[in-house]
Specification:
mainly alpha; 3-stranded antiparallel sheet; 6 helices
Length: 221
């Protein structure tokens, strides 16, 4: 029986290996480009988020410093007024010159309604007192928006921890300040002063944390 010979053509191995190599290089280039593009996009999103957060924190710091400066005058006024007023009638006795100085210093806290001459250059003044709390507007829009996008998954733990701690302290200050408002509306002057003192201590901590985070924010990129 005749057996047919099976002939096998010689394969061009160099050509095949060349094609495989080209495919391999092409796939890796595509993967590299995709990774580069994704990394570049993440870097851009991180930069945008950090810019927004930095602007928000700087604005919050400015608001905090302004409100603190104004509210620090409340205990000063109350102490000065108590030294002048001997009872709860709302009257004080002093010379016209002393009242001019007092009103100039505490014009937003005290307004003269009437005066009676007492003799020896002294006058009895009857007036109204006002306590106006300055409430700092501490925004967290940039922080909440960045969290919602999920961009923080690409931040380092240390960076995220500092930011989270700062905004948590900011929330605490806002909540405690609400208690100051309630004390002003419902409670005694003594309770108001205690609440203001506690909030002032928290605000000092928040100021330090703002400055620390703003100084190190560049390291988050």
């Amino acid at each position: 029986m005749d057996m047919k010979r099976i002939r096998i053509r010689n394969l061009n191995l160099k050509y095949i290996l060349g094609e495989i190599l080209l495919i391999f290089i092409g796939i890796n280039l595509a993967i590299w480009f995709n990774n580069w593009n994704t990394s570049n996009e993440i870097s851009k999103n991180k930069a945008v988020a950090l810019t927004k957060i930095e602007g928000e924190l700087r604005n919050n710091l400015g608001e905090l410093l302004k409100s603190r400066a104004d509210n620090k005058r409340i205990p000063e006024f109350i102490a000065a007024y108590k030294e002048l007023s001997s009872d709860d009638s709302g009257t004080v006795v002093m010379t016209a010159g002393e009242m001019k100085v007092f009103q100039s210093k505490y014009s937003s806290f005290y307004k003269v309604l009437d005066s009676i001459q007492k003799g020896d250059g002294l006058y009895e003044y009857k007036g109204d007192t006002y306590i106006n709390l300055e409430i700092a507007t501490l925004s967290k829009i940039a922080w909440d928006t960045s969290k919602a996008t999920g961009i923080f998954s690409d931040f380092s733990f240390d960076c995220l921890y500092e930011l989270e701690s700062t905004y948590n302290l900011q929330n605490l200050v806002a909540n405690e300040f609400q208690k100051v408002v309630e004390a002003l509306q419902r409670d005694s002057i003594e309770k108001l002063l205690k609440a203001l003192e506690f909030v002032s201590q928290l605000e000092q901590q928040l100021e330090k944390r703002y400055n620390k985070v703003l100084l190190n924010l560049e390291n988050c990129k």
